[in-house]
Amino acid sequence: MNKISKRIVGLMLAIMILATLFTGCSSGKDSDIKTPEGTPDVSKEKGDDEEGEANGDTLFEETLKFSYMSNIWGDHPEYPEEENVIIEELMRRTNTEIEFRWYPVEQYEDKVTVTLASDDIPDMIAQAPTSTLIDEGAIIPLDDLLKEHGQNILAYLEEEDYPYMREAVDGNIYAIPFILDFPPAYAMQIRKDWLDRVGIDKVPETWDEWKEAWHAFKDEDANGDGDPTNEIPYAGDVYGLLPAFGINVSNKIGFTEDADGNYTLMYELPEFKTFLEEMRYMYKEGLLDKEFATRGTFVDNPGLEKVCDANLAGSVMTWAANTRRTTEVLREIDPDAAMIGVKPIQGPNGKQGIPSRVRVTPTATITIAGEDKAEDIVKFFNYVFSEEGINLMSYGIEGEHHEREDSRLVLKSPYVDSFENARKAGLNLTPFPHLFTEDAFMQITLGGMEYEELPEPMQFFYDALYVGEDYFFTPTPTLNTEAYTEKQGDVFPQIEAMLAQCITGEISIDEFYNQYEKLKPVGLQDILDQGNEAWQMISK
Q1: Percent of the chain with pLDDT over 90
Q2: What stretches of 108-173 adopt beta strand conformation (E)?
Q3: pLDDT, average across residues 507-519
């Protein structure tokens, strides 16, 4: 049985369990039922609490009315502002009327500020800086309300999610989350056709093997264009290489946890010096992208896409989807082109890792204007995180957006054909708290096809999502402490510039550390101290 078939069978079994056991069964957390990864797990008592069940045909006997402010459009202009049949169905089932106040992403933060100063504060504000809302005294903590009326929501939070949910200022939870229950996101990638062209039969795994491949890419005409000097052996920023040195970070800011469980910066770790030494070697030898400091990051890097599309990048660490996109683009001129996902690099000390997708995004807060109805609002979202609510938000309305096939929910065309089509229908409305399942995500990702039916570039994408699965780590969040909020704009751009200067040889490693230490009395030490204090509070 192939990989995708195994996952689909597991998901079918899980949904059969949901269909038969969700109501009338309270299995508890110690249940013997084992639910596959990425699927709603009824063993956590989801939907069994009395507060989360509907009274008759609806959740509320008297209509719950509340207002909801959020930004929309942004990267997904296809989201419907009005006539969202899925949200309308959600309101019908729960006897709820929501007054949505949608605003463009541009100037949204200013709009929030103006709203807070007005006499018309909505009951909920979503996708606004929570720390700002707390400072303004505009929102209420939700911990007690979630414990009493939001058991379904809490049941889907895992231990590693809480540092993302709790606020550094006081350790409380202020927002109801959006959860994408799908850890794969990034992948180490290499041009398989380049390896073939330079005579390397084995995909590199160790640091020395990778350096051998990078040297071959540099010294030979790996891209086959007749110019042996234009290849970029490793393209993009340097941050994607940090996990190979045991430094588990997922952005250029670099907060992480040290061996003693302290919240710190990657520069404080002893492994960082080794990383610097190897990056300086790679740059000097022409193995590292000469524009590593200006291409962006592996999370947001349109510049990286350009060099991949230009047939110049031999390897990258970025979104797994890049394997499909790059292969498709390059096969228009070279049918043998193949950007494939591979296991993360095993560094010089045997370490390897790759960041997983952060599951939770704190999304919507309840304001002081909605405090009197906060209990019912939490009950409403508790329904959204029930089996019925999850299915509605992930799969839509039965018969219209999906069909049941042997107890499995199968999205219909055109909604399964693309994320754009799904969003146009109102599926997976990310400005609104809900849980989007791995199964629904993969159905849309694969266009409803089985693995064997996929074009080869799409198979590369699927394989890249899971090739590093055994090496996933949950990234450490950046905590918005008072010191970080006030001083990060002065401190971190300087560190980023110093790092680039050190890698390019403009300053020595010792000079980098000397300059780094000089930043501590002017704000860096406060950021470190307040961050660790907050971490010890929210990570317990």
Answers
A1: 84
A2: 124-126
A3: 98
Q: Return d(Cα 218, Cα 323) in angstroms, integer.
A: 21
- Give the distance from CA 355 to its chain's centroid: 9
Which residue do the tokens 């807070």 mark?
116
Buried b (16+ CB within 10 A) or exposed e, 391-415: bbbbbbeeeebbeeeeebbebbeeb
Q: What's this model's pTM, rounded to 2 decimal places?
A: 0.86
261-292 residues labelled b (16+ CB within 10 A) or e (exposed): eebbbbbebebbebbbebbbebbeebbbbeeb
Structure tokens at 411: 């999205």
Cα dihedral 7, 10, 12, 18, rounded to 10, equals -130
CATH 3.40.190.10 residue window(s) in the chain: 3-179+361-445, 186-355+454-473
Q: How far apart are CA 243 and CA 164, in angstroms?
A: 21
d(CA 275, CA 166): 32
What mean pLDDT is reported for the chain? 90
Quick one: CATH architecture of 186-355+454-473?
3-Layer(aba) Sandwich (3.40)
Query: What number does CATH give the domain 3-179+361-445?
Result: 3.40.190.10
How far apart, in whole angstroms, are the C-alpha atoms of residue 211 and residue 305? 23
Q: Which amino acid is at 65?
A: K
45-75 b/e (C-beta count within 10 Å ≥ 16 → b): bbbbbebbeeeeebbbeeebebbbbbbbbee
Could you read off the pLDDT of 292-311 as tens digits, one per residue? 998 877 777 788 999 999 99
Residue 409 in tokens = 């929910």
- Which of 88, 42, 38 has the alpha carbon at shortest distance from 396? 88
Q: Poorest-confidence range of 51-65, 188-202, 214-228, 464-478?
A: 51-65
Residue 215 pLDDT exceeds 50: yes
Q: What is the pLDDT of residues 471-486, one digit of tens each?
A: 999 999 999 999 999 9
